[in-house]
Amino acid sequence: MGKIKACLFDLDGVIVDTAKYHYIAWKELANEMGFDFTVEDNERLKGVSRMTSLDILLSIGNVEKSEEEKLELATKKNENYLSYILKMGPEEILPGTKEFLEQLKKEGVKIALGSASKNAMTILNRLELTSYFDAIIDGTKVSNAKPDPEVFLKGAEALNVSPGECVVFEDAEAGVEAAIAGGMKCIGIGNAEILRKADFVVDGLHKMNIAMLEGLNN
C-alpha cells in the first residue's frame, strides 16, 4: 500500500442498514396517535435531528403537542428504535463488509468508525464487528455534525495518521462533504448522482478491494 494508511467508515448505509428501524419506530409513534406515516413521508426525515423529525411527523398528522409532550414522544421513539437495535445480529451486516475489513487488516491498513450515531457501539457489538476497528468515533465523542469534518479528523488523530493518508466511506452527501473538508479521499456508497463529489462511487463494500484504494494514490 502506498499513501493510504487508514480507512474511516460511516456506519448507517455503509456497514449496516439501521434506517429501516428508525422508520418502523416513527411509524409506530404515528399509528399510536391515529395517523399513518409512509415511506415517502420518511424521506423528509433523512439527515434531520430527532426533534425536527418529530415536528415533521406531527405536522403530517396535523397534531399539536406541548414541548413537554414532544420530549416524551421523542424519548419513546428512541426506546422503540433501541428495542429493534438490540435484536440485531451479524446477518444484518451489509454484503462484502466483513471481507473488505479482513482485507484491510491483512494489509495493515488502520480502520476507524466515524458515525454521528450515539448507538454505534451497541450496533457494532450486536454485529460482532467491534474488534475490526482500531478507533471508534461516535455521537458521544463529537459536538459538530457532518458536513463538519470533526468526526473524521478525530478518527485520523486517534489512528495517528494525517488526513491525507485517509479514505472515508460514506453514503450521505453531508458525509462526503465532511471528508473533503477534512482533506481526505472519499469513496461514496450508493447513488453516484447524489455522491458526485466523492472520488468515486460503488454500490456497496462488496464491490471494493485493496487495488481500488491503491488507485486513489495516482
Structure description:
This protein is α/β, with parallel strands linked by helices and 218 residues long. It folds into 2 domains: 6-16 and 91-215, Rossmann fold; 19-85, DNA polymerase, domain 1 (Orthogonal Bundle), CATH 1.10.150. The chain is 43% helix and 11% strand. The protein is built from 9 helices and 6 strands. It has helices spanning 19-32, 39-43, 50-61, 67-85, 97-106, 120-127, 150-159, 173-181, 210-215; strands at 6-9, 110-114, 135-137, 166-170, 185-189, 200-202. The chain has a 6-stranded parallel beta sheet with strand order 3-2-1-4-5-6, with helices on both faces. Helix 8 links the parallel strand 4 and strand 5. Helix 1 (19-32) packs across helix 4 and helix 3 crosses helix 4. The longest helix is centred in the middle third of the chain and has 19 residues, at 67-85. The chain is elongated, with a radius of gyration of 18 Å. The model has no long low-confidence stretch (mean pLDDT 94).
Write the element-wise H/E pattern from the N-terminal end onward: EHHHHHEHEHEHEEH
For the residues shown, what is the average pLDDT?
94
> What is the CATH topology descriptor of the largest domain?
Rossmann fold
* Basic shape: elongated
Main β-sheet description = 6 strands, parallel
Label the CATH architecture of the largest domain: 3-Layer(aba) Sandwich
What is the number of strand segments? 6
CATH superfamily of the largest domain: HAD superfamily/HAD-like
Low-confidence stretches: none
Structural class: alpha/beta
Total number of domains = 2
Sequence of strands across the biggest β-sheet: 3-2-1-4-5-6
Radius of gyration, whole Å: 18 Å
Q: Approximately how much beta-strand content do the residues carry?
A: 5-15%
Count of DSSP-assigned helices? 9
Distance between the termini: 12 Å
